[in-house]
Amino acid sequence: MIILQPRPLTIEAFAPYGDVLETGAAHELRHINYGNTDRYHDVAALDVLAEGGQPLVSIFRSRPLPRPIAVTVMERHPLSSQAFYPLSQHPYMVVVAEAGEFDAGKLQAFIASGTQGVNYRKGTWHHYSLALDKPCDFLVIDRGGPEKNCDEVFLDGANIRTVNY
Amino acid sequence: MIILQPRPLTIEAFAPYGDVLETGAAHELRHINYGNTDRYHDVAALDVLAEGGQPLVSIFRSRPLPRPIAVTVMERHPLSSQAFYPLSQHPYMVVVAEAGEFDAGKLQAFIASGTQGVNYRKGTWHHYSLALDKPCDFLVIDRGGPEKNCDEVFLDGANIRTVNY
Hints:
By secondary structure, the first copy, chain A, is mainly β. The first copy, chain A, has one helix and 17 strands. Chain A has one domain (2-162): Jelly Rolls, CATH 2.60.120.480.
């Protein structure tokens, strides 16, 4: 059994896979609304317009998987990014591998805090949303359009990873 | 002093102004991720692409105004919708008037719950984000682009409204 040890999610560690949506010094801060609002501006590189795509906003309600989490399927969106922001203020798990030919040896796991979103870059391999301990809602920004925009790869045998959580 | 009495936010009551982003029967529910996720699909009519616009996601941190809230300025985005989803699970205030020539006599106030977002339709007059009692973060989906996309109108004298909260 090969174990994936999750790391804390940071902008730097996640850079090969996409963006971290959070407040903080990494994002441009604008003071708006007569000083009553801080705007952390443009916190993710949304990329949803290829081939006539439209931005779409949805709410996901994800239930936890049995522990330990076994990674047996990964997905990618070849036409677009996909952004998740947690609405339940609870940590959640992110499992990714870089875009390109899938390689189970390159899987990485991250624990996101309840105030961090992620935006998977176009083509980044990722596990579907992984609530921990209890159901978690996410606001999701992805692409609308009739084109097929999800590839899956199934892991078996020695490729299966177990997340140490 | 003219008082605005806020109503609870519902999809029906808010229909003249835009969308309510929430889970529930009004939105298409898809069971995805091998049954582990409920997707409330396409919960708002994002309208951010006019004149070469790009979808933009930002985080707003809004501080409460002094109570009682006096409505002295309203804004509209002539080129795009603007969606807000609360991240702090606290109720917040929404003040709107229908698109078109501004009429203070048509102002309406709503209390949104901590699990309801709003999407102001293009041109809908709205107050900037109104946290109640304590600071509130919002995920905001609006339009990026160099064009001017905010008109303001200032209320004075008999046009000022005070929200009964």
